[in-house]
Amino acid sequence: MKLTIVYDNEIYNKEASVEKDWGFSCLIETRDDTLLFDTGTKGRVLLNNMNELSIDPGRINKIVISHEHQDHSGGLVALASVVEDAELYRLGRGTPGETIKLTTVKKPQKITTTVWTTGRLKGSPVDEQSLVLNGKNGWYVLAGCSHPGVKQIVDASRKIGKVVGLLGGLHDFDEFSLLEDLDFVGPAHCTKHKKKIYELFPKISSACGVGKIIEI
Ligand SMILES: [Zn+2]
Ligand SMILES: [Zn+2]
Question: What is the C-alpha to C-alpha distance for residues 26 and 4, in angstroms, rounded to an integer?
Fold first, then answer.
């Protein structure tokens, strides 16, 4: 499974003419499906970054919105104009186009054979879902902003499989001992304590940003 960060507050691949902007989006390519987790804030930036990274958005057949904040759902309308017959998994209601079929997520559920959602988790100020991805060596948690708290997200993910990695927006997360038994941490987007995570876990942590590719 291949993950590519296509929208983030920082740029990772400085060779590509991508833009950074507050928000998050990550493309997930499995053997059978192409999923987009979150859509960033601005559709124009989302589509431009995908183009610069040689990603054809028309291939996306599943879209997941982690939570109903603009920096995660803002690009959805623009995405809908270039995607055909996709399934949308979100906590709220509403679909941006007739060809996009809505599933309102409540409980943990399988989205593809190797991709699960934690289901709706209580968070402040909003509820959120995270994805749990079955990589070669275990399961990786992909989070949007972690409003429910990383502990609650990881605990929910452990019910799906053995968690070995964590990636995405970790907000003001500082319970660093939770990361001790992981093989990979990729703090992205709104993560406040990125530097501290790199310092404490130099062997397993990795800088993220637009253009970062992670094979799991
Ligand atoms: Zn948020
Ligand atoms: Zn956010």
Answer: 6
Q: Global pTM?
A: 0.97
**% of the chain with per-residue pLDDT over 90:** 97
Instruction: Tell how far the Cα of 137 is from the centroid of ligand 1, in angstroms.
Output: 29
Asked if residue 103 lies in contact with residue 88, where contact means CB atoms within 8 angstroms, the answer is yes
Domain extent listing, the chain: 2-215
Q: How far is the CA of 190 from the centre of ligand 2 (A)?
A: 6
Q: Which ligand is nearest to the CA of 72?
A: 2
Q: CATH number of the domain at 2-215, please?
A: 3.60.15.10
Reported as a pLDDT band with limits 50, 70 and 90, residue 97 is confident
CA 25 to chain centre: 6
In angstroms, rounded to a whole number, what is the distance separating the alpha carbons of residues 7 and 90? 18
69 C-alpha to ligand 1 centroid (Å): 5
- Residue carrying the six token digits 């992205």: 188
Ligand nearest to the CA of residue 190, numbered in listed order: 2
- What is the Å distance from ligand 2's center to 24 Cα? 7
Give per-residue pLDDT as tens, 138-164: 999 999 999 999 999 999 999 999 999
What separation in Å is there between the alpha carbon of 24 and the centre of ligand 1?
10
CA 107 to chain centre: 18
Question: Pick from 134, 83, 138, 142: which is nearest to 110 by CA?
Answer: 134
